[in-house]
Specification:
Elements: E1 3-7, H1 15-27, E2 34-37, H2 43-55, H3 59-81, H4 86-106, H5 111-118, H6 121-136, E3 141-144, H7 163-171, E4 180-184, E5 187-189, E6 195-197, H8 202-214, E7 218-223, E8 228-229, E9 241-242, E10 244-246, H9 247-255, H10 263-271, E11 276-280, E12 289-292, E13 303-317, H11 325-337, E14 344-348, E15 351-357, H12 361-371, E16 374-388, H13 392-399, E17 406-409, E18 413-419
Parallel strand pairs: 1-2, 1-7, 2-4, 3-4, 7-11, 10-12
Antiparallel strand pairs: 5-6, 8-9, 11-12, 13-15, 13-16, 14-15, 16-18, 17-18
Helix pairs in contact: 1-3, 2-3, 2-5, 3-4, 3-6, 4-5, 4-6, 8-10, 9-10
Keywords: Amino-acid biosynthesis, ATP-binding, Kinase, Nucleotide-binding, Transferase
Family: Belongs to the aspartokinase family.
Catalytic activity: L-aspartate + ATP = 4-phospho-L-aspartate + ADP
Length: 431
């Protein structure tokens, strides 16, 4: 049965990484039939900066940034292919020229449309180079344009999948054991052939879409870490790898801000109970983490999530009245209208507290709007700690010496909000 692999930008960030990728695929006892790939390294960021320069009319900056993108990719081609680089160089040059033409053609269109016609070229460039390298390594590879494979509506920058049309295109792929199909993550296209993008974490979602349509045996996402952890190892000095999570538990962690797997990715896999494995491309012998329908291990290890640069808005009725359902409906309606998500909601008889990501124009607009009808107390520079499967002793130890500004708890999850200056840079999970 079909296996789908997804490789992110770190795994193909330069020529050395691409060589390593070829070696990895060659060493595996069973090669995948479909490989989904992101743009190289920080290319998407560079393309977004290019887009900004184009839309702001900064012609000199635009040309400099386009030249840098061209140079970075051609340098990679030269490092990989040397004297045999000409055919690949020509394909890369053609894609860069097409990118430039699209910027000129769509600069006066809406930003989401312009974005989708240009930023996905990072994936097209990366897969063009990698496909040629895998062929040179003796790994038969068929390059596939995802804009003709994953069919969506025209909701630019957050396109919705046309599952029927996509399944029809995917079933037409020539999948076999003798070669792998290499395609792009993040991008799709309408039935009319207009490029779209799938939103943040779109490349993982692309792999899940293809796996769903193919009825794949499994999906593997390759990262530069040996699996998923119960906390960010950069912030918690004793974080541990999670060997197994259910789909539901992974969605809970992602909802609360953990950098694990986006819920959009899990939906298509859960529908067909396709397991998802997270493995390290730097350590093939590392066991990684498994996500599937089995819930037996979900509460074995507490998980910890930090959200920093938080703002707490505490809203009070001006007439000393209750914060009843009508007023809560009004406040939360304004939150939705502002396009914001509350990371924590804490309520009392005469207050409703909302913890939000800080430093945004939308937050300022919401605070001003609420202030017209309510008394609003605002606190900035806060840190939100979310703990899955906590106990009282654990929460007490984590909160020791810190004032709790707001909190929420149910049977499985506890959230507490603290002043950031009272929080350590590196946390230690109490034993």
């Amino acid at each position: 049965m079909t296996q789908v692999f997804k490789f992110g930008g770190a795994s193909i960030r330069d020529a050395a990484a691409i060589r390593h990728l070829g070696e990895l695929l060659d060493e595996l006892p069973q090669r995948p039939q479909v490989v989904v790939m992101s743009a190289m390294g920080k290319t998407t960021n560079a393309l977004e900066a290019l887009l900004a320069a184009a839309r702001q009319g900064e012609k000199a900056t635009y040309r400099e940034r386009l030249a840098a993108i061209r140079r970075d990719h051609l340098d990679t081609v030269d490092a990989l292919f040397g004297a045999q680089a000409d055919p690949v160089t020509a394909r890369v040059e053609a894609l860069i020229d097409e990118l430039d033409r699209r910027h000129q053609a769509h600069v006066d269109q809406t930003r989401p449309f312009h974005y989708d016609q240009t930023v996905g070229f990072g994936e097209l460039l990366a897969t063009t180079i990698v496909a040629a390298w895998l062929e040179a390594c003796g790994l038969p590879t068929a390059w596939q344009d995802a804009r003709e494979l994953i069919i969506t509506d025209a909701c630019h920058q957050a396109a919705n999948v046309d599952w029927e049309a996509t399944a029809e295109r995917v079933r037409a792929l020539a999948i076999g054991d003798d070669r792998l199909v290499l395609t792009q993550g993040f991008i799709g296209g309408t039935r009319e052939g207009v490029a779209t993008t799938l939103g943040r974490e779109g490349s993982d979602f692309s792999a899940a879409i293809l796996a769903h349509c193919l009825g794949a045996k499994g999906v593997t996402i390759w990262k530069d870490v040996p699996g998923l952890f119960n906390a960010d190892p950069r912030r918690f000095d004793n974080a541990v790898r999670l060997a197994h999570l259910s789909y539901a538990e992974t969605v809970e962690l992602a909802w609360h801000g953990a950098k694990v797997i986006h819920p959009k990715t899990l939906g298509p896999l859960q529908q067909k109970t396709i397991p998802l494995r997270v493995r390290s491309f730097e350590a093939l012998d590392a066991p990684g983490s498994m996500i599937d329908a089995d819930t037996r291990h979900d509460d074995e290890t507490a998980a910890f999530i930090l959200r920093e640069t938080q703002t707490l808005l505490t809203v009070h009725p001006r007439d000393f009245a209750f914060m009843d359902e009508t007023r809560q409906h009004d406040v939360l309606g304004q939150l939705v209208e502002a396009g914001l998500h509350a990371n924590l909601i804490d309520s009392g008889a005469m207050r409703l507290s909302l913890c939000l990501d800080g430093d945004s124009e939308r937050l300022e607009s919401l605070a001003e709007s609420l202030g017209a009808d309510y008394e609003v107390i605002r606190r900035d520079d806060l840190t939100l700690l979310t703990v899955r499967h906590p106990d009282d002793d654990l929460l007490a130890a984590l909160s020791d010496g810190r004032e709790v500004l707001a909190e929420r708890r149910n049977a499985d999850t506890a959230q507490r909000l603290f002043h950031s200056d009272k929080c350590p840079r590196t946390w230690h999970i109490p034993e």
